DUF2157 domain-containing protein
Amino acid sequence: MATANDTRPASISLETLDAALASGVISLDQRERLLAMEAGPESVATAGGDEENLRLIGGGNDLFVTVGTVLLTAGFYFVLNTMLVGRPLWIAAALAAFAWLVAEVVTRQHRMKLSSTVLALVFAASGTVLLVLLVQAILDIQLPDSLWELIAMRGPVSQAGYAVLGGIILAAILYFWRFRVPILAGVVAIAATLLAFFQTALFLYDGVTQGTVAPPSLQDGPELVRAALYMPLVCGLIIFATAVALDLHDRERRTIWSDCAFWLHVVSAPMLVHPLFIMATGQDIAFGRIEPGADATVMLAILIIGFVYVALAIDRRSLLVPTLAYFGTLGIYYLVNSAANTTGVPPFALILLVVGALVILFGAGWQRIRRLIIGSTLPTSVLSKLPPFRI
């Protein structure tokens, strides 16, 4: 019990914050700011810091608890495998319930960031397996021996797809509503993307069976692959736009919405990079070698510059890392291949040199480069809406 001489600050419980949020005394943003302030100064770093404020780990104790969480989960899984032999549905249900119950202590009460992320992934994985097995049992779906038999099961397959993917999204949203774990934003984005792919496949199937869409031949394979790239590109643009909106909503990167934006950028980057690379260069990695000519090389360079500029503008390294990794392994390979042939240096070594140099350059001088490029090319009215420059 605190006395009059006790100078320690009073701590507000999560129940009090939730009650204040429900009654309209504080907003959701204010609740997250209060939680960040209670977590420590590193969680409320303002524009004065040089690092991208991403709260993935809460310190040594968080890492310690994460190790315990992994060991406890693994032990519980092996116990379930021993006690519930041949009952995968019950094992998945027990793991999902276990992750939720442990999160009530680790996440809800103590706000352990890294261990909370691990528990959220355990819940998402076990929940997915549970939904698949449950839907399979309810609809009595037997896995076919061939693709054609699977396609012929249009009715049950469509119901199962909607139930599983929709269930994953609802479960992730419910878990996020309870525990506020940012990585679930990425889980929702992936499930929604798969749902869009699934709906597109059903649409094409119905078109072929009804005669409104001609069935593709083997020769149409490359064109079909290129056409299919529009779906991940559109989904990637939607996810990226959502992430940018969250970033602009939280310019100072103080709340959980900024962390959600990080995971959305991680999910959207591959969806944007791969389709744009093939569309811009005309290359096809599925049906042929990637050997950019002069025009493709120029388009490749423009793409790299464009992604770097956007990443600098929104102050997100998470968008740049998949870009450099992809272009480093595919695009830069052929850009430096001629040099490798003349010098005798292995192309893989040149790839490592180029990508490594870019990573170190942007890692060490990110804010200086950002201030120099973005600060001098965008008007003040736009800069005022972007994340502020850090010293």
Q: What stands out?
A: Residues 347-377 form the longest helix (31 residues). The two ends are 43 Å apart (CA to CA). The chain has a mean pLDDT of 77.
